[in-house]
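Proteins fold. Shown next:

***
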Amino acid sequence: MAQVTYQLAELAQQIEGLLRGDGGVTITGVGHLDDAQPGQIAFVDGAAYLDMCEGSEASALIVPPDIEIEDRPFIVTEDPRLAFSKVLALFASDRLPQPGVHESAVLGKNVSLGENVSIGANSYVGDDTIIGDGTVIHPLAYIGHEVTIGADSIVHPQTYLGARVQIGDRVLVHAGATLGADGFGFLQTEAGHHKIPQIGTVIVGDDVEIGANSTVDRATVNATTIGSGTKIDDGVHVAHNVIIGKNCLLCGQVGIAGSTKIGDNVVMGGQAGIKDHIEIADNVIVAAGAKATGDIREPGVYSGNPARKHRKQMRVLALTQRLPKMVERIKELEAMVQELEKRLGEQR
């Protein structure tokens, strides 16, 4: 495959930045300030990184408005990090397959395929499934019956989309993810654990990304819901009947127990754990490793186990560090009280 190259002036136009210097410089790729090679472009996030610019071999830089570069051309943008991400997309090496159905793929009855759909080798698409325009189903994917997938979505290899799952437009499902497996529902009886049938589904909004090996369980009767714009990292578990709002970020190994409702713009750090049947308000940040065991009704940052407002949690931790000295002091005071009682008793 031929190497992708851009003139710096072209990149400035693509990212809507202001070019300073020679726009004819050829850019062959991207790099970080500390390891960029000649021909690559890097970004400067602020004045604190100016010293690194001097030693960088990058041929061009992306900088914020308050920075001037003298020894090479640069592009000025309000948000260099965002601009850099757009440049990364331009140089992305992923090549989408050509539209069409591979001869080894299996399609069920009444499958509806939009225009320019690609169905990869050894994948399976169940009966009455609808796949929108421009969507790519990579090899070895399993798509159950009566599934709906919107336009321009990508389903990577070895994924499982269970029956009746609904996926919106521009959704990215990474390898090994499972959407629509049975929720974990059992009744404990004298005869053992009685399975509760899980006959609901999963509904995923537009512009959602679901990471590798993540699981979103189907609801018992209604729908487990992932709001539009939400991004889910690798290895995340979303249990049955959970409702997640729009534009949330769930980092690796987050676990959300059943029937919990998550608001919009919620961020959960790695290994955060969320109890079942609780509600979390909009604009909440649950710190890495925190355990939410009850409703969180106000926006803010929460940490610890159980999760509290972060400032309160820091005070609790600070007091915890003082406990050994406090215990020693209590023992000393108890000894003093005992001595005083003894003396008072002798005086009587």
